[in-house]
Each structure stands twice: as structure tokens, then as C-alpha cells.
UniProtKB/TrEMBL annotation:
A cellular component term, taken from the record's GO annotations: plasma membrane
Protein name according to UniProt: YihY/virulence factor BrkB family protein
Lineage of source species: Bacteria, Bacillati, Bacillota, Bacilli, Bacillales
Spans through the membrane: 27-49, 84-106, 127-149, 169-192, 204-225, 237-259
Pfam families, per database record: Virul_fac_BrkB
Signal sequence, start to end: none
Subcellular location: Cell membrane
Length: 273
């Protein structure tokens, strides 16, 4: 019990010292700048993939609060209708814009570990772009698993003479792809992003917290917005943007807290027994 109390005391202290809530506000701003370029870039890939726009937006819709999906979808449709050649000519600018959010996360995680960014601008930004592309690849895999999961399961079932129980378990697991993929994204982020040499296992506590915490917080906030609040009445036509920013703010807090948790346990391992 004493260790748990000590953990929370140190965590609260680090939250205050590292200005977690201020950093989360910065992340929310960069997330707002990044989400539309990111989704637009993925949308331009859809003609080359056996998935639809509805499949992609369905992932966001499962967690997004209120009327955010209408705003996101309408803005994406407007941009895509005007930029039919976006994938050919605007790919660099689009990926660069989409990587702003990852670049801000790298800075926040460096602060959690109390390290300075010594990597060159090109290296740091290149890492942000690679992480962005990796995240896109992971999202595509998460979309493809429900589509092709049954065929993959049947292939494994027939090739390795597996039992009917395996097929039943497989059909259940493939629909849990989104939470598992979310954990993998956070694990890679916490492992690679900070300017500090870390072992993959050291990123697990924060990744678990961030994956579970983000899903629960998003669902809770979505329920609150849908049942107890009316931002449109208070803020008028920008009410949806206010909700989106609050959602991004909550997301930023959870991501940074995951980094703070990993930083705590990393330092704890260095202490003499």
C-alpha cells in the first residue's frame, strides 16, 4: 500500500513540475491541425485498398463524442472534392502537416523523461513522419482484420487442422483488433519517441494505461456530451469544434500521463534495492 501511495505522490509531483495540463493544451492544438491532413491522406489511399470511407470513419465514430463525426466527414468531403490529385502532388505537405501532432508528443515525452532534444531537426521531424506513417499502416491493418479476418481464420483452420474452438476464438479476437492495435501504437510511441534509449518492456505500463484510459475516457466523454451537455446552445456554431478540442485535450493528458508513468518506473529501476 505504501508503494502505491508513493507512486501517486511522485506522479502528482511530476504532473505539476512538467506542466502536464499546459502541454496537453498544446497537444490539443496540434491534434486539431493534424487530424484532417491525416484522415485526408488515408482517404486518398482507399481506392487502392479493399475498405471504404465508412470503414475508416467507423473507427473514429466508435469513440468520438457528439456531432464531431458530421464535422469531420463534411470537411474531408469538401477537401477531397477540390483535391482529386492530393495523393500525387500534395503527399509531402499532407504528411508533414499530419506529423505535427506526433512531433508535439515527442517534445512532451522528452519533458516527462527530463531529457533535451539533442537530435537534429531533420532526424526529429523524420521520426515524427515515420511514426505517422506507421500509425497509418496500423490503422489500415485494424480495418483489414475485420474484413479479411474470417478468411484468414479459415485458412489457418484448414492448413493446421485446428479445432472448432480455435475458429470461434479467432472470430472473437479479430473484432478486438482496435484495442489491441491501440496498445501497439502507444507501445511503439513510448518506446521510440523519447530522446532516451529505452527497452521495449519499459513502455508497457504507460501503453496499457493510455490504451485503456483513452478508450474509457473517450466513451465517458461521448456519453456526457450526448446526454448532459449542450455545447451548441452555449457556443453556437463552433460548439462542435469546442467539443473536438476538449476531446483532444483529454487525449493529450492521457498520452502524457502514460509517458510520466513509464518515466517513473524507468527511474525506479535505477534505484538500488
Amino acid at each position: 500500500m505504501g508503494k502505491v501511495i508513493h507512486f501517486f505522490k511522485v506522479l502528482i509531483k511530476n504532473i505539476q513540475q512538467d506542466d502536464v495540463f499546459d502541454l496537453a493544451a498544446q497537444l490539443a492544438y496540434y491534434f486539431l491541425l493534424s487530424i484532417f491532413p491525416l484522415l485526408i491522406f488515408v482517404m486518398t489511399l482507399l481506392p487502392y485498398l479493399p475498405i471504404t470511407k465508412e470503414d475508416l470513419l467507423g473507427i473514429v465514430e466508435g469513440f468520438a463524442p457528439g456531432d464531431i463525426m458530421n464535422t469531420i466527414e463534411s470537411n474531408i468531403d469538401q477537401v477531397l472534392n477540390r483535391n482529386v490529385s492530393l495523393l500525387s502532388f500534395g503527399i509531402i505537405a499532407t504528411i508533414w502537416s499530419a506529423s505535427n501532432g506526433l512531433n508535439a508528443i515527442i517534445k512532451a515525452l522528452n519533458k516527462a523523461y527530463n531529457v533535451e532534444e539533442t537530435r537534429s531537426f531533420i532526424v526529429a521531424r523524420g521520426m515524427s513522419i515515420l511514426l505517422t506513417l506507421g500509425m497509418i499502416a496500423v490503422v489500415v491493418v485494424a480495418l483489414l482484420l475485420p474484413v479479411f479476418g474470417e478468411q484468414i481464420g479459415m485458412f489457418l483452420f484448414s492448413q493446421f487442422d485446428l479445432t472448432d474452438e480455435f475458429l470461434s476464438i479467432w472470430n472473437t479476437l479479430r473484432f478486438l483488433a482496435s484495442p489491441i492495435i491501440l496498445f501497439i501504437v502507444f507501445l511503439a510511441l513510448y518506446w521510440v519517441a523519447p530522446n532516451k534509449k529505452l527497452k521495449c518492456i519499459s513502455a508497457i505500463p504507460g501503453a496499457i494505461f493510455a490504451a485503456i484510459g483513452w478508450v474509457l475516457a473517450s466513451l465517458a466523454f461521448s456519453y456526457y456530451v450526448g446526454n448532459f451537455s449542450n455545447y451548441s446552445a452555449t457556443y453556437g456554431s463552433i460548439g462542435t469544434i469546442i467539443v473536438l478540442m476538449i476531446w483532444f485535450y483529454i487525449t493529450g493528458i492521457i498520452i502524457i500521463l502514460g509517458g510520466e508513468i513509464n518515466a517513473y518506473f524507468t527511474e525506479k529501476r535505477k534505484e538500488p534495492c
